[in-house]
Structure formats: structure tokens, C-alpha cells
Amino acid sequence: MPGNCGCNTCAGASPCELNRDVCQLKELVRSQGKQLGQLVRHMKMGCKKPPKESTLKGLSPCLKCLQPDVLYHLGMDTATMDFPKVFGDVRFVCMGGTAERMERFAYKIMKELSLKLNPATTLRNMAEPGHRYALYKVGPVLCVSHGMGCPSISILLHELIKMLHHAKCQDPVFIRIGTCGGIGIEPGTVVISSEALDGMLNPYYELIVQGKVVLYSSKLDQCLANELLSLAIPCEDDFCTISGKTICTNDFYEGQTRLDGAFCDYTNQSKTAYLQSVQCQGVVNFDMESTAFAALTNRANIRSAIVSMCIVNRMEGDQILSPPECLSEWEKRPQALVARYIRKEFLKRDDDSDTEAYEEVCPSACLEGDKAI
Ligand code: URA
């Protein structure tokens, strides 16, 4: 006798049983499809030879003797972590001052690259055991906080560069997404640094090593800077993006000729004269990390760029008076530009199965189950 629907196949079966059978069948097809996808991916991966070495250059010959190598400030070491497995796919390292900003950027990148999180998980600060910096991994992107000033960013760069070396990473690009003090530019403007200069307007990062002054070039990658600049869309973006020279100082107050620090041995007139003179030489902003960032990435053969958001026009004042709502809205501007670049580069990849692969890698690499961080 035919069933409810009139066919002989489901003769005698109740609608409930039919529903259950359909669900079971769907589940079977879904899991077989997944297994098939995994098989294809593994076959593709099996065909690719894993790189023997990273593309980083000029690193210390002492590194190979460090067994294990302890990245103390990141709270990681090569004995307890499989660096090639966890970080081998890293292609972009984005750095900014605070942990919160970099966590927000990590979530933005996840959205931009259409990488999915299980609803019960959050991104995990992988550098939490070091109690110094915050580090989030989203697929091929590391989002890391660097604190303030050259000493802080330099310690972090030493350890990140070693991490990528141990992980055998290929051609990583480093981008600092920071804040800056503008010279004659409106707060909210995005600045792409064309050069990083020290306080004497020289393109060097100065370090005292064994009692001697050593100068390292702080030149930035012009192609990368131009590429980032080309991604600004003046008629669509609700902000200006400009390019110019950046002066890196060792101090926020006197180093940047502020009148509002605890000490000040100069006048308002000499401050204005100084700002005008550097402006005439093409300087558009101050920061406190660019020379160390440029020099250390240069030394390791890493392409790097600096994209920052101006929070004050120093021609008009010293204090940061923009309301927090403005600052948090402006924070998204350099992030939007850098996210465009990463998305463009990410989509260039020929292996279209990687997005799915990252979703599988993520839970072990960078996510924390069930609890918020
Ligand atoms: N960062 C700086 O170094 N200076 C400023 O004025 C603002 C941000």
C-alpha cells in the first residue's frame, strides 16, 4: 500500500519517522562531504613541500644553539610549542600600542577574511603567560600590542622575529597601526610614514651596544607605503589619508616640544619655530616607535609600513582634547586601510581551500573555549 505521499518507498512510515530518516541522510551527506574536503586538502598539502627555512635574513648565528629558545616576554618557548605548526602560516604581523586596540583589530580582520568563530569561543591572548604584550592570531594575521616607545617595541620585535624564524615563515609583512601627533594636519587624518627619522632628522635608529653608538637604517619600504596609500578611496572614505615623514622621539613631552609636561625649559615661540622648521622639511607627524620598528624589520629582511591616526594637531595645541567617542571612531580608520590591504593580499592566494583550513586550525591555535578573556 502506498504511504501518505502516495509513493511506495515510504509506505507504512509515519511523518515523524520520515523526518528522522531525512535528517539522518542529510547528516550522512554533510559528514561525507566534510571528509572528502579534508581528504582533498590533505592531498594538496601533501604535495606542497614545507619550507626548510624562513625568509628572514641576518639573524644571530647564536639562535641555532638555543635549545630551547625562550621568548620570555611573550611567555612562549620552542620546547613546549611547535612553532611551525602554530605560526608557520603567518603572513601579516600588525602591531599597535594597546592590547584592547589589537584585540578589536583581530576581530575586524576575522570578519574581513570571513573566518568564523564558534559562538562559544573568543580569541585568546597567546602572550598572556608573559604578562607584557597581547598577541592574537587570526588565520595568517598576528595582531600584537607593543606598548609605548622604542625599548618596548624593540624587545617585542626581537621575540616576534625569532618566533617567525623558528616557525619558518615566508615573506611576512609587518605593519604598525598606531596613533601619532600631527604637525599641521587635522586630528582624525591617517598618515602613512614615508620615512622614520630620529630627533635630529636622520633616518637612523641609534643603539648603544657594548658602550659604542651603533646606527641602523630606519628606511621604510616605499612600495608597500605606496600600495597602502593607493588603497585609500578619497571619494568614499570619510577621512583623509596622507603620506609624509615621521619623527620618532624618546619622549612624549619634551621630546615632542610640548609645553604641558612636568618640565619645560623652552618657550612657546621656540616650540612654534621648531614645529614650522620640521614641517618645512616634509615632516607630518611624531611617534615614539617608528625608527626601532623600521630598523629591526629592515635588519631581518622584512617589508614593513607604518599607518597611524593623528590624535592632535601640534600646531594648535599639546593636549589630547578630542572626545573618547571621536578617538574610538578614528581608531577604525588606519585599521580599515590595513584590513583592505590584507584582504587584497589574502584573496590573491591560489589555494582557495585555505579559508576552511584556517577554521580548523583556529581552535587549537588561537581560540579560547567557553570563557571570555
Ligand atoms: N603619539 C605621539 O607620539 N605623540 C602624540 O602627540 C600622539 C601620539
Structure description:
Helix content is 37%, strand content 21%. The protein has helices at 15-47, 83-87, 99-112, 150-166, 222-230, 268-280, 290-299, 324-347, 354-365, and strands at 70-71, 76-77, 92-96, 121-123, 135-138, 141-145, 173-182, 190-197, 204-209, 212-217, 241-248, 283-287, 303-313, 367-369. Helix 3 crosses helix 8 (324-347). The radius of gyration is 25 Å and the shape is globular. The relative contact order is 0.16. Residues 1-5, 350-365 and 369-373 have low confidence and may be disordered. Uracil (URA) binds next to strand 7, strand 12 and strand 13.
Rg, Å, rounded: 25 Å
Task: Give me the oligomer status.
Answer: single chain
Query: Strand percentage, roughly?
Result: 15-25%
Strands ordered across the widest β-sheet: 7-12-11-8-13
β-strand number: 14
Which runs of at least 5 residues are low in confidence (pLDDT < 50)?
1-5, 350-365, 369-373
Strand pairing plus helix content: what structural class? alpha/beta
What binds here, in terms of ligands, is: uracil
Reported for the largest beta sheet, the result is: 5 strands, mixed, barrel
Name the average pLDDT. 89
Q: Strand-and-helix sequence, N→C?
A: HEEHEHEEEHEEEEHEHEHEHHE
Please give the share of residues in helix. 25-40%
